Amino acid sequence: MKAFTHARVIDGKGGFIPEGTVLVEGSSIVKVGTSSEVELPEGVMTVDCGGRTLMPGLMDAHTHLETTASNNVINEVAQYNLPTRTMRSYWNSLETIRAGITTVRDVADIGDCVIAVRNVINQKLLPGPRIIASGKAINQTGGHASMSTEYQWSRPDAGGSGHCVDGEAECRRAIRTEVAAGADLIKIYVTSGLYDPFLGKPRDEFSKKEIEALCDEAANSGKKVAAHCHTAKSAKYCIENGVASIEHGMMINEETLELMKAHGTFWVPTTIVYQLMADGEKYGLGSSTIENSRKALVNQEKMFRKALEMGVKIGIGTDCGGVLINHGETARELECLNRWGMSAMDCIKAATSANAELLGIDSETGSIEAGKEADLLIVDGDPLEDIRILQNQEKILVVMRSGEYYKDMFSVQR
Length: 414
Description:
Distance between the termini: 20 Å
Protein name: Amidohydrolase family protein
GO molecular function: hydrolase activity, acting on carbon-nitrogen (but not peptide) bonds
Number of domains: 2
Strand content: 15-25%
Organism: Hungatella hathewayi DSM 13479
Shape: globular
InterPro entries: Amidohydro-rel, Metal-dep_hydrolase_composite, Metal_Hydrolase, Metallo-dep_Hydrolase, OTAase-like
Order of helices and strands: EEEEEEHHEHEEEHEHEHEHEHHEHHEEEH
Largest sheet: 8 strands, mixed
CATH architecture of the largest domain: Alpha-Beta Barrel
Oligomer: single chain
Number of helices: 12
CATH superfamily of the largest domain: Metal-dependent hydrolases
Keywords: Hydrolase
Protein backbone atom coordinates (compact mmCIF):
# COMPACT_ATOMS: atom_id res chain seq x y z
CA MET A 1 0.00 0.00 0.00
CA LYS A 2 1.13 3.56 -0.78
CA ALA A 3 0.07 6.77 0.93
CA PHE A 4 0.39 10.08 -0.91
CA THR A 5 0.38 12.64 1.90
CA HIS A 6 0.43 16.44 2.22
CA ALA A 7 -0.90 16.87 -1.33
CA ARG A 8 -3.05 19.55 -2.89
CA VAL A 9 -5.68 17.13 -4.18
CA ILE A 10 -7.72 18.05 -7.26
CA ASP A 11 -10.23 15.22 -7.48
CA GLY A 12 -11.30 15.67 -11.13
CA LYS A 13 -14.95 16.34 -10.27
CA GLY A 14 -14.55 19.92 -9.13
CA GLY A 15 -13.43 19.12 -5.59
CA PHE A 16 -10.25 20.32 -3.93
CA ILE A 17 -8.48 19.34 -0.70
CA PRO A 18 -5.75 21.86 0.27
CA GLU A 19 -3.83 19.25 2.28
CA GLY A 20 -4.95 15.74 1.51
CA THR A 21 -3.92 12.11 1.68
CA VAL A 22 -4.71 9.41 -0.88
CA LEU A 23 -4.21 5.72 -0.12
CA VAL A 24 -3.51 3.35 -3.01
CA GLU A 25 -3.50 -0.43 -2.76
CA GLY A 26 -2.65 -2.46 -5.83
CA SER A 27 -4.31 -0.80 -8.81
CA SER A 28 -6.99 1.06 -6.85
CA ILE A 29 -7.57 4.10 -4.69
CA VAL A 30 -8.85 2.93 -1.31
CA LYS A 31 -9.22 6.15 0.69
CA VAL A 32 -9.21 9.92 0.13
CA GLY A 33 -9.43 12.69 2.70
CA THR A 34 -7.61 15.44 4.53
CA SER A 35 -4.26 14.53 6.02
CA SER A 36 -5.76 14.83 9.49
CA GLU A 37 -8.68 12.52 8.63
CA VAL A 38 -6.87 9.64 6.95
CA GLU A 39 -5.12 7.30 9.35
CA LEU A 40 -2.06 5.68 7.83
CA PRO A 41 -1.97 1.88 8.16
CA GLU A 42 1.07 0.35 9.78
CA GLY A 43 3.86 -0.39 7.32
CA VAL A 44 2.42 1.75 4.52
CA MET A 45 4.90 3.25 2.03
CA THR A 46 4.58 7.03 2.39
CA VAL A 47 5.14 9.55 -0.39
CA ASP A 48 5.18 13.07 1.08
CA CYS A 49 4.02 15.33 -1.76
CA GLY A 50 5.18 18.42 0.11
CA GLY A 51 2.27 20.57 -1.01
CA ARG A 52 2.49 19.59 -4.66
CA THR A 53 -0.62 18.86 -6.72
CA LEU A 54 -2.06 15.35 -6.88
CA MET A 55 -4.67 14.98 -9.62
CA PRO A 56 -6.17 12.35 -11.93
CA GLY A 57 -4.36 11.37 -15.10
CA LEU A 58 -5.52 13.35 -18.11
CA MET A 59 -7.56 11.86 -20.95
CA ASP A 60 -7.61 12.79 -24.63
CA ALA A 61 -10.91 11.94 -26.32
CA HIS A 62 -9.74 12.54 -29.90
CA THR A 63 -6.43 11.00 -30.93
CA HIS A 64 -4.94 9.24 -33.95
CA LEU A 65 -2.14 7.11 -32.53
CA GLU A 66 -1.34 5.58 -35.90
CA THR A 67 -0.11 8.88 -37.33
CA THR A 68 2.19 11.71 -36.33
CA ALA A 69 1.72 15.46 -36.70
CA SER A 70 2.04 16.52 -40.33
CA ASN A 71 0.62 18.94 -42.87
CA ASN A 72 -0.19 15.90 -45.05
CA VAL A 73 -1.15 12.96 -42.85
CA ILE A 74 -2.14 10.75 -45.77
CA ASN A 75 1.27 10.94 -47.42
CA GLU A 76 2.94 10.53 -44.03
CA VAL A 77 1.07 7.31 -43.27
CA ALA A 78 1.46 5.92 -46.77
CA GLN A 79 5.21 5.59 -46.32
CA TYR A 80 4.77 2.63 -43.97
CA ASN A 81 3.34 -0.87 -44.12
CA LEU A 82 0.96 -2.18 -41.46
CA PRO A 83 3.54 -3.76 -39.11
CA THR A 84 5.58 -0.54 -39.08
CA ARG A 85 2.49 1.55 -38.45
CA THR A 86 1.50 -0.72 -35.57
CA MET A 87 4.88 -0.21 -33.92
CA ARG A 88 4.66 3.54 -34.51
CA SER A 89 1.20 3.50 -32.90
CA TYR A 90 2.68 1.88 -29.82
CA TRP A 91 5.54 4.39 -29.68
CA ASN A 92 3.02 7.24 -29.88
CA SER A 93 1.06 5.70 -27.01
CA LEU A 94 4.20 5.82 -24.86
CA GLU A 95 4.82 9.46 -25.78
CA THR A 96 1.25 10.09 -24.66
CA ILE A 97 1.41 8.49 -21.23
CA ARG A 98 4.80 10.04 -20.43
CA ALA A 99 3.10 13.43 -20.80
CA GLY A 100 0.49 12.55 -18.17
CA ILE A 101 -2.29 11.33 -20.46
CA THR A 102 -3.25 7.97 -19.00
CA THR A 103 -6.27 7.30 -21.23
CA VAL A 104 -7.00 8.03 -24.89
CA ARG A 105 -9.94 7.53 -27.20
CA ASP A 106 -8.52 6.76 -30.64
CA VAL A 107 -10.94 7.77 -33.39
CA ALA A 108 -10.00 6.48 -36.86
CA ASP A 109 -7.39 3.77 -37.09
CA ILE A 110 -6.69 3.32 -40.76
CA GLY A 111 -5.40 -0.24 -40.53
CA ASP A 112 -6.75 -1.49 -37.17
CA CYS A 113 -3.21 -1.02 -35.84
CA VAL A 114 -4.40 0.72 -32.67
CA ILE A 115 -6.78 -2.13 -31.86
CA ALA A 116 -3.73 -4.42 -31.93
CA VAL A 117 -1.81 -2.07 -29.62
CA ARG A 118 -4.79 -1.84 -27.27
CA ASN A 119 -4.97 -5.61 -27.12
CA VAL A 120 -1.33 -6.16 -26.14
CA ILE A 121 -1.56 -3.43 -23.49
CA ASN A 122 -4.77 -4.92 -22.08
CA GLN A 123 -3.13 -8.35 -22.02
CA LYS A 124 -0.26 -6.78 -20.04
CA LEU A 125 2.26 -7.90 -22.64
CA LEU A 126 3.44 -4.29 -22.96
CA PRO A 127 2.95 -1.21 -20.76
CA GLY A 128 0.93 1.71 -22.04
CA PRO A 129 -2.08 3.97 -21.59
CA ARG A 130 -5.68 2.83 -21.48
CA ILE A 131 -6.92 2.90 -25.09
CA ILE A 132 -10.54 3.10 -26.23
CA ALA A 133 -10.30 2.35 -29.96
CA SER A 134 -12.73 2.89 -32.83
CA GLY A 135 -10.87 0.85 -35.42
CA LYS A 136 -11.47 2.00 -38.98
CA ALA A 137 -13.71 5.02 -39.45
CA ILE A 138 -16.71 5.06 -41.77
CA ASN A 139 -17.16 7.62 -44.54
CA GLN A 140 -18.89 7.97 -47.87
CA THR A 141 -17.16 7.30 -51.17
CA GLY A 142 -15.24 10.45 -52.07
CA GLY A 143 -15.82 11.83 -48.58
CA HIS A 144 -13.53 13.41 -46.00
CA ALA A 145 -11.39 10.35 -45.24
CA SER A 146 -11.89 8.59 -48.55
CA MET A 147 -8.89 7.69 -50.65
CA SER A 148 -10.19 9.33 -53.83
CA THR A 149 -8.12 9.88 -56.96
CA GLU A 150 -6.44 12.89 -55.36
CA TYR A 151 -5.73 10.97 -52.14
CA GLN A 152 -4.11 7.76 -53.30
CA TRP A 153 -1.84 5.72 -51.08
CA SER A 154 1.67 5.52 -52.46
CA ARG A 155 1.98 1.80 -51.75
CA PRO A 156 -0.48 -1.08 -52.19
CA ASP A 157 0.07 -2.58 -48.72
CA ALA A 158 -0.82 0.60 -46.84
CA GLY A 159 -4.10 -0.92 -45.69
CA GLY A 160 -6.84 1.33 -47.01
CA SER A 161 -8.53 4.38 -45.58
CA GLY A 162 -11.33 2.76 -43.63
CA HIS A 163 -14.83 1.93 -44.81
CA CYS A 164 -16.07 3.86 -47.85
CA VAL A 165 -19.79 3.13 -47.94
CA ASP A 166 -22.91 4.30 -49.76
CA GLY A 167 -26.48 3.53 -48.78
CA GLU A 168 -28.02 2.19 -45.61
CA ALA A 169 -27.11 -1.47 -46.16
CA GLU A 170 -23.42 -0.71 -46.63
CA CYS A 171 -23.47 1.55 -43.56
CA ARG A 172 -24.82 -1.28 -41.43
CA ARG A 173 -22.33 -3.78 -42.83
CA ALA A 174 -19.40 -1.47 -42.01
CA ILE A 175 -20.56 -1.15 -38.40
CA ARG A 176 -20.83 -4.92 -38.08
CA THR A 177 -17.36 -5.36 -39.57
CA GLU A 178 -15.75 -3.00 -37.06
CA VAL A 179 -17.60 -4.52 -34.12
CA ALA A 180 -16.31 -7.93 -35.22
CA ALA A 181 -12.79 -6.47 -35.42
CA GLY A 182 -13.01 -5.41 -31.78
CA ALA A 183 -13.94 -1.73 -31.96
CA ASP A 184 -14.84 -0.12 -28.62
CA LEU A 185 -16.81 2.63 -30.38
CA ILE A 186 -17.73 3.73 -33.89
CA LYS A 187 -16.28 6.77 -35.66
CA ILE A 188 -18.22 8.27 -38.57
CA TYR A 189 -17.40 11.17 -40.89
CA VAL A 190 -20.65 12.94 -41.72
CA THR A 191 -19.17 16.11 -43.22
CA SER A 192 -15.99 17.06 -45.00
CA GLY A 193 -13.21 18.88 -43.17
CA LEU A 194 -11.76 22.37 -43.20
CA TYR A 195 -8.61 21.18 -44.95
CA ASP A 196 -10.08 19.23 -47.87
CA PRO A 197 -8.28 21.02 -50.72
CA PHE A 198 -10.76 20.00 -53.43
CA LEU A 199 -13.94 21.16 -51.70
CA GLY A 200 -13.22 24.75 -50.72
CA LYS A 201 -15.46 24.64 -47.65
CA PRO A 202 -17.11 21.96 -45.47
CA ARG A 203 -20.08 20.11 -46.95
CA ASP A 204 -22.63 17.64 -45.62
CA GLU A 205 -21.83 14.10 -46.76
CA PHE A 206 -23.85 11.19 -45.34
CA SER A 207 -27.60 11.53 -45.87
CA LYS A 208 -30.12 11.64 -43.04
CA LYS A 209 -31.14 8.03 -43.76
CA GLU A 210 -27.52 6.87 -43.78
CA ILE A 211 -26.85 8.59 -40.44
CA GLU A 212 -29.96 6.94 -39.00
CA ALA A 213 -28.74 3.53 -40.20
CA LEU A 214 -25.23 4.06 -38.81
CA CYS A 215 -26.46 5.14 -35.38
CA ASP A 216 -29.12 2.45 -35.19
CA GLU A 217 -26.68 -0.33 -36.05
CA ALA A 218 -24.13 0.98 -33.55
CA ALA A 219 -26.81 1.07 -30.85
CA ASN A 220 -27.79 -2.51 -31.71
CA SER A 221 -24.19 -3.49 -30.93
CA GLY A 222 -24.01 -1.39 -27.76
CA LYS A 223 -21.39 0.96 -29.22
CA LYS A 224 -21.18 4.71 -28.79
CA VAL A 225 -20.71 6.87 -31.89
CA ALA A 226 -18.29 9.77 -32.34
CA ALA A 227 -19.24 11.95 -35.31
CA HIS A 228 -16.75 14.09 -37.19
CA CYS A 229 -19.14 16.90 -38.01
CA HIS A 230 -18.80 20.58 -38.83
CA THR A 231 -22.23 21.72 -40.00
CA ALA A 232 -25.40 22.41 -38.02
CA LYS A 233 -27.53 20.37 -40.44
CA SER A 234 -25.56 17.13 -40.06
CA ALA A 235 -25.06 17.73 -36.33
CA LYS A 236 -28.84 17.85 -35.92
CA TYR A 237 -29.26 14.46 -37.60
CA CYS A 238 -26.45 12.98 -35.50
CA ILE A 239 -27.69 14.30 -32.16
CA GLU A 240 -31.28 13.25 -32.80
CA ASN A 241 -30.03 9.74 -33.58
CA GLY A 242 -28.04 9.43 -30.38
CA VAL A 243 -24.36 10.02 -31.14
CA ALA A 244 -22.23 10.33 -28.02
CA SER A 245 -20.19 13.25 -29.29
CA ILE A 246 -19.87 15.85 -32.00
CA GLU A 247 -16.22 16.19 -32.95
CA HIS A 248 -14.94 19.61 -34.05
CA GLY A 249 -18.28 21.35 -34.76
CA MET A 250 -16.77 24.46 -36.32
CA MET A 251 -19.99 25.64 -37.99
CA ILE A 252 -22.63 24.63 -35.46
CA ASN A 253 -25.17 27.12 -34.12
CA GLU A 254 -27.29 27.79 -31.03
CA GLU A 255 -29.92 25.28 -32.14
CA THR A 256 -27.15 22.66 -32.17
CA LEU A 257 -26.20 23.58 -28.61
CA GLU A 258 -29.82 23.34 -27.48
CA LEU A 259 -30.05 19.85 -28.99
CA MET A 260 -26.78 18.82 -27.32
CA LYS A 261 -28.05 20.05 -23.97
CA ALA A 262 -31.39 18.26 -24.37
CA HIS A 263 -29.84 14.95 -25.46
CA GLY A 264 -26.77 15.00 -23.19
CA THR A 265 -24.46 14.99 -26.21
CA PHE A 266 -20.82 15.89 -25.70
CA TRP A 267 -19.01 18.47 -27.80
CA VAL A 268 -15.29 17.78 -28.37
CA PRO A 269 -14.16 20.99 -30.12
CA THR A 270 -10.45 20.11 -30.70
CA THR A 271 -9.86 23.83 -31.11
CA ILE A 272 -6.07 23.66 -30.79
CA VAL A 273 -5.71 22.01 -34.19
CA TYR A 274 -7.75 24.74 -35.90
CA GLN A 275 -5.81 27.47 -34.15
CA LEU A 276 -2.66 25.92 -35.58
CA MET A 277 -4.27 25.61 -39.02
CA ALA A 278 -5.29 29.27 -38.89
CA ASP A 279 -1.59 30.05 -38.58
CA GLY A 280 -0.88 27.62 -41.38
CA GLU A 281 1.54 29.64 -43.49
CA LYS A 282 4.39 28.49 -41.27
CA TYR A 283 3.31 24.86 -41.72
CA GLY A 284 2.87 24.92 -45.48
CA LEU A 285 -0.93 24.66 -45.48
CA GLY A 286 -2.97 25.94 -48.41
CA SER A 287 -4.64 29.34 -48.43
CA SER A 288 -8.18 27.88 -48.46
CA THR A 289 -7.45 25.82 -45.33
CA ILE A 290 -6.06 28.87 -43.54
CA GLU A 291 -8.99 31.07 -44.56
CA ASN A 292 -11.58 28.42 -43.62
CA SER A 293 -9.96 27.90 -40.22
CA ARG A 294 -9.81 31.59 -39.38
CA LYS A 295 -13.45 32.15 -40.28
CA ALA A 296 -14.64 29.03 -38.49
CA LEU A 297 -12.72 29.84 -35.30
CA VAL A 298 -14.74 33.04 -34.90
CA ASN A 299 -17.95 31.00 -34.86
CA GLN A 300 -16.48 28.23 -32.72
CA GLU A 301 -15.37 30.62 -29.99
CA LYS A 302 -18.79 32.28 -29.95
CA MET A 303 -20.55 28.91 -29.73
CA PHE A 304 -18.13 27.61 -27.10
CA ARG A 305 -18.75 30.54 -24.80
CA LYS A 306 -22.49 30.02 -25.29
CA ALA A 307 -22.10 26.30 -24.57
CA LEU A 308 -20.46 27.12 -21.24
CA GLU A 309 -23.41 29.36 -20.32
CA MET A 310 -25.89 26.62 -21.26
CA GLY A 311 -24.07 23.79 -19.50
CA VAL A 312 -23.40 21.71 -22.62
CA LYS A 313 -21.13 18.76 -21.87
CA ILE A 314 -17.58 19.42 -23.09
CA GLY A 315 -14.97 16.76 -23.78
CA ILE A 316 -11.26 17.35 -24.25
CA GLY A 317 -9.61 16.12 -27.44
CA THR A 318 -6.81 17.39 -29.64
CA ASP A 319 -6.87 15.51 -32.96
CA CYS A 320 -3.23 14.73 -32.19
CA GLY A 321 -1.59 12.74 -34.94
CA GLY A 322 -3.98 14.41 -37.34
CA VAL A 323 -2.83 17.82 -38.53
CA LEU A 324 0.04 19.60 -36.76
CA ILE A 325 -0.62 18.59 -33.13
CA ASN A 326 1.80 16.12 -31.52
CA HIS A 327 1.00 13.21 -29.24
CA GLY A 328 1.26 14.16 -25.60
CA GLU A 329 0.15 17.77 -26.17
CA THR A 330 -3.36 17.44 -24.74
CA ALA A 331 -2.75 20.23 -22.23
CA ARG A 332 -2.51 22.73 -25.10
CA GLU A 333 -6.25 22.26 -25.64
CA LEU A 334 -6.84 23.11 -21.98
CA GLU A 335 -5.01 26.40 -22.46
CA CYS A 336 -7.14 27.23 -25.51
CA LEU A 337 -10.43 26.53 -23.75
CA ASN A 338 -9.30 28.35 -20.61
CA ARG A 339 -8.61 31.38 -22.79
CA TRP A 340 -12.18 31.05 -24.14
CA GLY A 341 -13.72 31.26 -20.69
CA MET A 342 -13.56 27.77 -19.18
CA SER A 343 -12.11 27.89 -15.66
CA ALA A 344 -8.95 25.93 -14.92
CA MET A 345 -10.91 23.65 -12.59
CA ASP A 346 -13.51 22.96 -15.28
CA CYS A 347 -10.76 22.33 -17.84
CA ILE A 348 -9.31 19.66 -15.57
CA LYS A 349 -12.77 18.23 -14.92
CA ALA A 350 -13.42 18.05 -18.68
CA ALA A 351 -10.11 16.25 -19.26
CA THR A 352 -10.73 13.74 -16.47
CA SER A 353 -14.17 12.85 -15.09
CA ALA A 354 -16.17 14.32 -17.99
CA ASN A 355 -14.03 12.53 -20.56
CA ALA A 356 -14.42 9.35 -18.52
CA GLU A 357 -18.20 9.72 -18.78
CA LEU A 358 -17.95 10.24 -22.53
CA LEU A 359 -15.76 7.16 -22.92
CA GLY A 360 -18.08 5.09 -20.73
CA ILE A 361 -15.42 4.35 -18.11
CA ASP A 362 -16.45 6.76 -15.35
CA SER A 363 -17.16 3.87 -12.98
CA GLU A 364 -13.50 2.84 -13.32
CA THR A 365 -11.43 6.01 -13.55
CA GLY A 366 -11.43 9.76 -14.15
CA SER A 367 -11.49 10.99 -10.56
CA ILE A 368 -9.72 10.54 -7.25
CA GLU A 369 -12.28 8.52 -5.32
CA ALA A 370 -12.20 5.31 -3.33
CA GLY A 371 -12.76 2.36 -5.63
CA LYS A 372 -11.43 4.06 -8.77
CA GLU A 373 -8.28 3.04 -10.62
CA ALA A 374 -5.15 4.81 -9.36
CA ASP A 375 -4.50 6.93 -12.47
CA LEU A 376 -2.60 9.77 -10.84
CA LEU A 377 -0.25 12.66 -11.54
CA ILE A 378 1.98 14.59 -9.16
CA VAL A 379 2.53 18.09 -10.54
CA ASP A 380 5.17 20.46 -9.22
CA GLY A 381 2.98 23.55 -9.25
CA ASP A 382 -0.63 24.67 -9.28
CA PRO A 383 -2.61 24.10 -12.51
CA LEU A 384 -5.55 25.98 -10.97
CA GLU A 385 -3.35 29.05 -10.91
CA ASP A 386 -1.87 28.49 -14.37
CA ILE A 387 -3.27 25.65 -16.51
CA ARG A 388 -0.25 25.91 -18.82
CA ILE A 389 1.92 24.16 -16.26
CA LEU A 390 0.46 20.85 -17.48
CA GLN A 391 2.26 21.42 -20.80
CA ASN A 392 5.63 21.35 -19.04
CA GLN A 393 6.63 17.70 -18.75
CA GLU A 394 9.41 18.61 -16.33
CA LYS A 395 6.70 19.72 -13.91
CA ILE A 396 4.82 16.42 -14.18
CA LEU A 397 6.91 14.46 -11.71
CA VAL A 398 4.85 11.29 -11.42
CA VAL A 399 2.58 9.47 -13.85
CA MET A 400 0.76 6.44 -12.47
CA ARG A 401 -1.74 4.27 -14.29
CA SER A 402 -3.67 1.62 -12.35
CA GLY A 403 -1.17 1.83 -9.51
CA GLU A 404 1.88 1.32 -11.75
CA TYR A 405 4.50 4.02 -12.22
CA TYR A 406 5.10 5.15 -15.80
CA LYS A 407 7.19 8.12 -14.74
CA ASP A 408 8.74 8.87 -11.37
CA MET A 409 10.87 11.99 -11.16
CA PHE A 410 9.63 12.69 -7.66
CA SER A 411 12.38 10.76 -5.91
CA VAL A 412 14.95 12.78 -7.87
CA GLN A 413 13.24 16.06 -6.94
CA ARG A 414 13.19 15.12 -3.27
